[in-house]
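pinning this so it doesn't scroll away 📌
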Amino acid sequence: MTTVEPILLAACLTYALAAAHDVAARTIPDTCSIALLLLALFRLTLTDGGASALIDAAVSFGVFAALVMLCAAGLLGGGDAKLIGSSTFLLGFDRLADFLTATALAGGVLALAYLIGHLLLSGMPHAVPAPSGPGRRATRHRLGLVLAAEHRRIARKQSIPYGVAIAAGALMTLGGFL
């Protein structure tokens, strides 16, 4: 196992947490973005980033600044801007185009899934599961609550959890799928 593999595993877990939290609450915790920034710094120290670290930091800051303007205009969520900015620093300038392309593709698939979901679910009632006891049933109950909330969001054409697309784009880029 190389020294970078634990960083990649931690990044994957961080993206999974960000995506799950965005689905459940439509927010992305700042701790996810901070963790990705720290992982990027750790990666750069292990791989002797040198001059490329300055380029990665500058590009990451530029991307984040542009996204903050979109956020101020109401076109993007603040958590999405922070997650993309920190992902840019983690992935580096050389993979920025791949990351943005993969994120856009994943976002398109996510939006299409939500449009199809709206067509299928708009007339159906929103079932909320009954409370249950400890253990597995409690976990199933929480999952049922999240699914019921998502059903309501889809039926009402509310916002989509774009953190899922960002996480998918980053994971596709990290895995070399694009």
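📌 and the second one:
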Amino acid sequence: MFSKSCEYGLRAIIYIAQQTKQDVKVSLTTISEAIDSPQAFTAKILQQLTRNNIVTSIKGPYGGFVIEIDKMKTITLSHVVKILDGDNIYTGCGLGLAQCNENSPCPLHFKFITIREQLRNMLENTSLEMLVNDMDTQHFCLKR
């Protein structure tokens, strides 16, 4: 459903948020190992997230990536998905067809509308803070 870069981006922000909550800055190497993503690919994703003010990159020997605690309340999964995948997940065809619309629907078109709205609702109403707080009570593994 999501692109690989979006999957890795979501994993990365969750991991960074977990570490930030413990007052730890994390390096690119640590993040890519924790989320099981190639380092160069992870760097490009983090660059996009930094440019869009989702994560903060601190330079220097004591640097690393963090997410401001106050921002965790307002950053939703939808923000990350839009940055990395655009809004195609909300508007595109469930089968990936270019010509699917109300007038010329694919076989899944009308069933996918409901799923798409549920997905939009979940992404827009799930903040990073909510996820990190939920993880305090359960074990969560970011690797596949």
